[in-house]
């Protein structure tokens, strides 16, 4: 399964995804190409100026979502 990149500040979501068996990496400007989805806070859709860098990867806004709901969306993208 591809890894999921998670924006800093989403620790509860990161921990929940890890407990569900997801490989989680910190979001950075040098993410691995094997990242299958990116989870952001939703506060800034162009986090760290990365919009062009992650065009081919689904971006999931965690704004207003529980860790369980984020996991459900991650599963949909990583099938």
UniProtKB/TrEMBL annotation:
InterPro entries in the record: UPF0180
Domain of life of the source: Bacteria
UniProt-recorded name of the protein: YkuS family protein
Species annotation: Alicyclobacillus sendaiensis PA2
